[in-house]
């Protein structure tokens, strides 16, 4: 019989965050202690029990308490990490991507009125506030018992249909309109759109499931699930050093996301004070696309070709014009053959803000894999999730250009699509959407 596995390094903590899918720095130590004898830290509340608290903007604000509940060494601080639910903006937008995500769209039940939806949003917000601090929800079946908050975030959005059904058409922001059709879209209506949107992210699958189940139970009679999609990303600590995530094509994806240190970051991602609908200030818009990767075709081209498709090195993520992952691309640079090094149809050139009148979005997608088709091809790809202050200054112009024929498009198929307006965050005692539903 083999001896028990030993861990030589600690999983990473979310000690400091980045919005662009970069793992938080690892809190590493080489302990060699038998995993089975180590314990998770359970955190009852961020303030009271000494968890690692990550601000809604992703930065660590406090940490205390590293021992297990029997006084022994904690196996990891990952479970103890709390991302506050309350704040100016909802959590789960700038939060560094957790390892697991569940996306759900709901349709209102016939007859569900504004009061019923307001009560639902209050129940959902209260549940999210409890679960995201590692507390249990009413009627909890202990699925997440023993675990801490595990960086759980719950993010809510509203679809255009909700405004019409609740008699709120006058308060629907003009930017919440159907996305235009794009060439080669192959959208499944049953897996697109919806009245309500929920994104649940966590570093633990059971914690995520527990949250989804609690939300689903408390929605009964008011809303029913229209579609659900499950995604995954790198687990914190999986790489030896913090890295931008890779997608299922093997590319480093997220390098040139806007950074929170950019002076225009908030302006580009969140709805500003001059908004046409005052209830939405501090909110955002999320565009969701299920994009299947035609991985067998992708595997059929060599690495140099794959790099030209994006315009970046597959190994390092650096632009093909040189430097490191975060170096600026030299879009004018030509090779010895006189050709552009980053070709005219390279994905990064076609999508870059400088060629799209500054259009920008915060990409926070997740990989998915739903098995293999009868032809053996993987049903896998990217749950593309983009946050922006206005889809007409973000996703729409960029996708319009990409769909006209960037070099990546032949390897993709857009299979589902949705757009939601995302209310601002709420304060303790309030609930998400209150300024719309009670305004
Ligand atoms: C409409 C917007 C975009 C869609 C849809 C999209 C799909 C998509 N992208 C990749 C892989 C990569 N994209 C990268 C960069 C990048 N992509 C978009 C927009 C969309 N991508 C933007 C705005 C950018 C940044 C461009 C820039 O300013 O440089 C990259 C390079 C690394 C990075 O910066 O993230 C990769 C890799 C896939 C696989 C995909 C659909 C499945
Ligand atoms: Fe992209």
Describe this structure in words.
Involved in the recovery of exogenous heme iron. Extracts iron from heme while preserving the protoporphyrin ring intact. Keywords: Heme, Iron, Lyase, Metal-binding, Oxidoreductase, Peroxidase, Signal. Residues 1-33, 313-334 are annotated as: Disordered. Its EC number is 1.11.1.-. It catalyses: heme b + 2 H(+) = protoporphyrin IX + Fe(2+). This protein is an alpha+beta fold and 439 residues long. The protein has one domain (78-236, 247-438). 18% of the residues lie in helices and 18% in strands. The strands form three sheets. Strands 8, 9, 10, 11 and 12 form a five-stranded antiparallel beta sheet that branches. The chain has a four-stranded antiparallel beta sheet with strand order 5-6-4-7. The chain has a three-stranded mixed beta sheet with strand order 2-1-3, with no helix packed on it. Strand 10 and strand 11 form a beta hairpin. The longest helix has 18 residues, at 114-131. The protein is globular. Mean pLDDT is 87; it is low at 1-51 and 55-68. The structure holds ligand L6N33NVT and fe (ii) ion.
Structural descriptors:
439 residues, alpha+beta, 5-stranded antiparallel β-sheet, 4-stranded antiparallel β-sheet, 18% strand, globular, disordered N terminus, binds the ligand C=CC1=C(C)c2cc3[nH]c(cc4nc(cc5[nH]c(cc1n2)c(C)c5CCC(=O)O)C(CCC(=O)O)=C4C)c(C)c3C=C, binds fe (ii) ion
User: Which class best fits the helix and strand makeup?
Assistant: alpha+beta
The span between the termini is: 66 Å
Mean pLDDT: 87
Number of domains: 1
H/I helix tally: 10
Task: List bound small molecules.
Answer: ligand L6N33NVT, fe (ii) ion
Judging from the principal axes of the Cα atoms, what is the shape? globular
Radius of gyration (Å): 22 Å
Name the beta content range.
Answer: 15-25%
Give me the strand/helix succession: HEEEEHEHEHEHEHHHEEEHEH
Which residues sit in consecutive blocks of at least 5 with pLDDT less than 50?
A: 1-51, 55-68
Region (Disordered): 1-33, 313-334
Domain Dyp-type peroxidase C-terminal: 244-426
Domain Dyp-type peroxidase N-terminal: 90-232
Catalytic activity: heme b + 2 H(+) = protoporphyrin IX + Fe(2+)
């Amino acid at each position: 019989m083999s001896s028990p596995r030993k861990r030589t390094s600690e999983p990473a903590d979310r000690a400091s965050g980045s919005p662009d899918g970069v793992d938080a720095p690892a809190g590493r130590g080489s302990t060699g202690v038998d995993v089975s004898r180590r314990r998770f830290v359970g955190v009852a509340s961020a303030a009271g029990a000494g968890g690692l608290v990550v601000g809604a903007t992703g930065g660590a604000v406090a940490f205390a308490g590293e021992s297990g509940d029997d006084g022994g060494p904690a196996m990891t601080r990952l479970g103890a990490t709390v991302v506050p639910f309350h704040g100016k903006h909802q959590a789960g937008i700038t939060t560094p991507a957790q390892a697991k995500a569940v996306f759900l769209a709901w349709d209102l039940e016939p007859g569900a009125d504004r009061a019923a939806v307001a009560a639902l949003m209050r129940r959902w917000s209260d549940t999210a506030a409890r679960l995201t601090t590692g507390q249990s929800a009413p009627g909890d079946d202990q699925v997440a018992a023993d675990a801490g908050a595990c960086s759980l975030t719950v993010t809510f959005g509203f679809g255009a249909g909700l405004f019409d059904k609740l008699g709120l058409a006058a308060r629907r922001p003009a930017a919440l309109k159907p996305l235009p059709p794009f060439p080669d879209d192959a959208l499944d209506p049953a897996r697109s759109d919806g009245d309500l949107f929920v994104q649940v992210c966590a570093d633990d699958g059971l914690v995520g499931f527990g949250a989804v189940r609690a939300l689903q139970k408390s929605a009964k009679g008011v809303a029913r699930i229209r579609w659900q999609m499950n995604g995954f990303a790198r687990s914190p600590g999986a790489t030896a050093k913090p890295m931008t995530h890779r997608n299922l094509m093997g590319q480093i994806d997220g390098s040139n996301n806007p950074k929170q240190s950019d002076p225009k970051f908030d302006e580009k991602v969140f709805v500003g004070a001059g908004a046409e609908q005052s209830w939405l200030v501090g909110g955002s818009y999320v565009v969701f696309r299920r994009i299947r990767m035609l991985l067998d075709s992708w595997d059929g081209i060599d690495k140099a070709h794959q790099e030209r498709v994006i315009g970046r090195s597959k190994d390092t993520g650096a632009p093909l014009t040189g430097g490191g992952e975060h170096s600026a691309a030299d879009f004018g640079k030509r090779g010895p053959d006189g050709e552009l090094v980053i070709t005219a149809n390279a994905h990064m050139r076609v999508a870059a803000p400088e060629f799209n009148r500054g259009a920008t979005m915060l990409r926070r997608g997740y990989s998915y894999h739903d098995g293999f088709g009868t032809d053996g091809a993987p049903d896998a790809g990217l749950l593309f999730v983009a946050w922006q202050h206005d889809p007409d200054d973000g996703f729409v112009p960029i996708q319009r250009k990409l769909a006209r024929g960037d070099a990546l498009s032949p390897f993709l198929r857009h299979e589902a699509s949705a757009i939601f307006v995302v209310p601002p965050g709420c304060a303790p005692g309030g609930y998400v959407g209150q300024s719309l539903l009670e305004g």
